[in-house]
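Sharing in case it's useful to others searching the archive later.

Someone asked me privately for the predicted structure of AMMECR1 domain-containing protein, so I'm posting the question and my answer publicly. Question first, with the sequence:
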Amino acid sequence: MAASDFIELPQPGREEALALLGIARLAIASRWDDRCRDELSHAIGSMPLANAVLACFVTLHEEGRLRGCIGCLEPQGPLREALPHFARLAAFGDPRFPPLEPPELGGVSISISLLGPLSPMEVEGRAELLASLRPGIDGLWLMGGGRRATFLPAVWRELPDPAAFLDHLLRKGGWPPGGWPEGLSVWRYRVREFAEEG
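And my answer, the predicted structure tokens:
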């Protein structure tokens, strides 16, 4: 991946990041509260990076555990549409978890990842991929045989060993860990991540 791939990603300042996180939270709360719908419309009107066409993920944690994570690896429209959409999907549409209930929202922390371009990795097998991975930096997307799976770079915090990172991702995609599926294609990407404090 070229250094310019990362430079192309905007770096929101603290106030911009807080505004984007607030919009994600309002998008979730608006499911239950009409006042939040009005606030959301107003917030989107003055949203930082509103017209930026970026891939993004929204991740929810509850008591330090994953509670939902949904997004896209390639841009699907301006951030003013994508961010609220994926915030709602992370809360209510992640098939791994039941839909978020109103009493839970106060205990949920939200993080947003803005993704840089996908960069194909021309590797010949497992050993070459493991040697090429940059722990803590690379997000990884695997695709082949009708299956696909991705891990954001944040997953390195839980799985700092490249082999464990890869094996968990293979398992997530439905492949057996420890091997190299035939016809596997691999991409990596970088992110700008920001999260609510607490």
